Each structure stands twice: as C-alpha cells, then as structure tokens.
Amino acid sequence: MQDTAHLISAVQKAKSEADFIVVTMHAGTEYTREPTKLQTSFSHAAIDAGADIVFGAHPHWTQGIESYQGKYIFYSLGNFVFDQEFSPETKNGLTVDVSLTKKESKTTLNSLTLHPILIENYGQPRLLTGEAKTQALTDIGQKEDTLET
C-alpha cells in the first residue's frame, strides 16, 4: 500500500498485457464506514497509472464508492463468506456484476450492478431485497443498484 512506485509499475506493465485492469487492495481501518487517506491515495494512484477499476477489502464493513477520473473505486466490499456475526455491519457485504464489451482492441465497461448481501449462519451469503437492500445501498451512499458508466 505504501509502495506507490511499485503499484504504478505493476499497473503500467499490466496495461501493456491486458485489456482491462482490476486493482485490489487489502487496506483500511477495520469496522469503519469511511476509507482512510491511504486507501484514497492508493486508489487514485492506481487509476492515474491506468487501472480501470479498484476493489478494496479489509475493513469488514462496506465502504463508499467513488467515481474518479471516470472510473470506479469500491473502497471496501465488506465481508462475503465470513463468520463475524457480532454486528449488522459485519454481516453485510457487497458483490458487483461488472459487464465488459470488447470491440477490436478496446474493452469498455458496460455496466456495474451492485448486489448487497447478508451473511447468515456463520458464512452463508444471501442477496438482499426490498427495504434491506435499499438500506444497505444507502449505508454506502448509493440510491440505485446500477452505476452510470
């Protein structure tokens, strides 16, 4: 996380070999809704270097989504299959459908659809619907489950 030069080099190398670059980060303060400055600077550096999307993990809670330079940063997807049943926040997570299209040598992001989940029985994810889904999206600053691309 603190070796930005390595991040930039890795993203640039990947960009020369791949059509769409996904960067993941394991960072942030556990049990918080807001990303740290380090998460933000790392994610921005990844996008600036050529990444197409950034997904974060570690805080055990879902965190916000940022559109930066026309690309998306998911600061924390929260938990998915995990056994932390001690709070509502650690039982919620987020999955994301990423739809891409490749035309000739250009790959573009078509859509991003958010699917909030609830972890039940110590490790069984269930898709949220209705009011629970709406609340989970609201918790991370989203009104809709589809992001503009």
Verbal overview:
The structure is a single chain. The chain is of the alpha/beta class and 149 residues long. It has helices at 4-17, 37-49, 130-139, and strands spanning 22-26, 53-57, 65-68, 71-74, 92-103, 106-120, 124-127, 146-147. The chain has one domain (4-147). The chain contains 3 helices and 8 strands. The model has no long low-confidence stretch (mean pLDDT 93).
What's this, in brief?
The protein is of the alpha/beta class and 149 residues long.
How many strand units?
8
Outline type = globular
Percentage of β-strand residues: 25-35%
What is the helix content?
10-25%
List the total number of helices. Answer: 3
Question: Which short descriptors sum up this protein?
Answer:
alpha/beta
Write the layout of secondary structure elements.
Elements: H1 4-17, E1 22-26, H2 37-49, E2 53-57, E3 65-68, E4 71-74, E5 92-103, E6 106-120, E7 124-127, H3 130-139, E8 146-147
Parallel strand pairs: 1-2, 2-4
Antiparallel strand pairs: 3-4, 5-6, 6-7, 6-8
